[in-house]
# Entry
Amino acid sequence: MNKNILQSINILYLEDDNTVRESIARTLKLISKNVYDFPNPIEALEYFKGDFLNIDIIITDIRMPKMDGLEFVAKLRENDLNIPVFITTAFDEKEFLEKSIELKVNKFLKKPINLKNFIDDLEQILEVIIVRKEEQNEKLQTLNKTLNLLNNKIYILLNNLETGIVSFNKFGVIQSEYSKKVKEFLNCKDLENKKIQEILFAEDSTLKKLFIKGIDYIQNDTNIMNIELYLGLLPQYIQLNNSYFALQYKYLENDDIMLIMSNITETKNLKKQIEQTKYKNELVVGVVSNKRDFIDIKNSFELFNKKSTIVMIEDDEQYFHLLHELHTYKGLFSQVNFILTAQKIEELENDLKVSIRSYNIDSNKIYHTYLKHNIFDTFEKELENVIGILGYEFFDNYEEQHKEKIGDLLLQEIEQLKTKTSLELKKEIQSIENKATQLNYVQLRSLLLNLTFQLPKLASKFDKLISKPIISGKESIMIPRNIIPFIHSLVHIYRNSIDHGIEDQNTRYENKKNQYGTIKTHYELLNGILHITIKDDGQGIDIDKVINKIIKNCIFTREYIETLTHQEKLQLIFYDRITTCENVTSLSGQGVGLSATKEYLKSLDGSVIIHSKLKHGTTFEFSIPLEQKINQFQIAQNLLQKKFENYIESTLGKSVEVLKAQSSNEIQWDTVVKIPFSYNEKQFEVIMAIQKTLLIEISKIIVPDGFHHEEMKAMQDEVPLDMINTFVGLVIDDFDKHGCKNTNMGLPEILSKEKATKYFKMLNNTQHPILNTRFGKASCYLHKT
Amino acid sequence: MLRILVVDDSLLIRNSLVKIFTALGHEVVGEAKSGYEAIVKYKILVPDFVTLDISMPMSHDINNGIDALKQILELDKYAKIAMVTSHGEEGLVMNAIKSGAKGYILKPISEEKIVELLVRIFPKNWIS
# Structure
């Protein structure tokens, strides 16, 4: 018999007589090391907590206090435990025999126990037990082996992943870690019972707050869809100890959350180069595909940056307005893929939110925070990237396209308006008008600021010094967009001043001038004429030098030039390819720029006068008429006339002759119809007069056949009303396109003889074209009410 | 095909959304520039789906997108609304979801993101 196995069997021995128990137990201990002896079953139950799975054999007395031996065995059998049982008993207790058989008791041992017999019996039963035990051991070993193997595999797998896995409960308290890596990532040896947020976001209180809020919401929401949404909103990236980690979250069945951390530092570095290229591409794509919008964003952002409002924030409202503006720009820039600018704005936003408390608005602090983040620099850098690829020209022919867009937009909005109620309509109209004005007009001051703010930098490249350019004029002056190219072209005047006008420091010193040159710009709007004066205190225009150059370049002959006035001679500097600068510089090119200014000026019907005094400086005085006097009424009248013609023509299918109005005195009009009509908030009436013969002809065409005589008559009566309704309706579209806003029409009405007489007179007195067809005449006109 | 209301104070974002929804075969039945306008239009149009900018200027006591969200859900507790948001507004978005938003799109907007969102919110009939 296998002694080792015998020595490891577990024997439970119950006997209430201490002397007997101790003596038998001693004997049993010779057989096995594991003998558990108790004076009654209750103590055994307590000791093993009811779990006798590991007991190999039970030896028990019958009569014991609290619970007798057979009761105990019955209890075990109830639990399906087939442990061999020996009963020790002092008497032939026959009454127990039946019950014992039922309980599958293996052996009765009569007290005093015959030790030899006992061991024989024991060995007999133990053999069975040992065989069973050996089998069990074998199975267990195989199982253990497999389990160990599996564990080992998982262990190796998890620890070789570049992934840290850890789970935490609803307070963020770490529950279990699934891979060693997480300790390394978090640089923390003992994670248990620590709060994950304190480790992950130790240096970022914003992220920490967000994280705590997120896990709180998750635990209080039962909707799994929402939980997923919240998980997606938890921080997805962190930077820890100079490494970058991607964070993923999984919701576990026990309401814990699993965090999967991957180190993406290397990937990030590798990706950087690829991303750099990709980023540039996206940047360009973003700009090209949103060209118009992009230019709008660019312009308005430049304006925003120049605005002095950032310096003057004093109350909550202004501050929140600033935050909102920043936020809008962030969204817009991210839409056109200006990712860095968007990021920079976000940093500024966050910094402002942390450092500025609403109850303590500190305009200085805001301004310094704004300057510190330098969002505009980042924007310019990104813009340079774009310009580097697309070139400056890309932005050049923008203005033309823009006009179309404004038209499109207004049309779209007006289209939408047609479906609205009148009260809403009024509000909408107001907002569209504002928008249209905003779109069509630009603040002149900001344009000029944009143009001049880099001039000192430019001058320094030529070893010249100029003070900050001065711009004076009302901030409220807005100019229409078609003037913008001209304003932009003024850059050539400025550059010309720096290159040719302002002297270098030594010369200025010799001439007893302030070492800083000045360039002043003044603008004003007088009687619809925009005046812009650009004045420098440089050396003035050397007319002789200019003239020599012109002659040398064979642009004009000396004879011709001598016929010119002094002013005309000065203006020669605007001619192409003229420069008095010996070296062609990047600054003022070859004089092409100045001619561009002149061209724009000509197209705007503007003019320029130059004052120049040697050694004292040059002044350019530009005048541009701004108000184009368009007679809206005339336009409307013409549109209406044209539509009327088209209508008659297409109805009759023949071309019509347009007669002059003079002969209208002799014309007998048979029917006169009017319809109320309004645009630009002004009330009008459209009057249409027609001869009977023509009306009958048109009726024949537009009144459908096959009706009862009376019905036909009724429809014919409606023909003039239908006519006026149709062509005035058609005209509304055209009106919108021609800047007549809020076009509207009322109900048409046939005029009685008396009323008609009044209109006949008007029609005869005013000169309107009359349509002449084979069938008769017709006329229409717009009448102010 | 879904009938969609697009709410954003930026024309560019509105246009981007309209373009994508239309390309996906849906119909943008209305656009609104403020939370107040959104509520008014929701009443009239009763769209199947609303995209709501999370931060819009205040109008008529409607402070931001979340206010508008709550008021629309008061009108129609089955309204399907997704928030349009930028990076950095995650906390606000959490509030929006708690208040009943069904999803969110992070700017910049792309067709992929919109499709993902629609699949999530309309799992049965997302194929237009």
User: Anything to note?
Assistant: Confidence is low (pLDDT under 50) at residues 400-404, 581-591 of chain A. The first helix of chain A runs from residue 3 to 7. The longest strand of chain A covers residues 243-251.
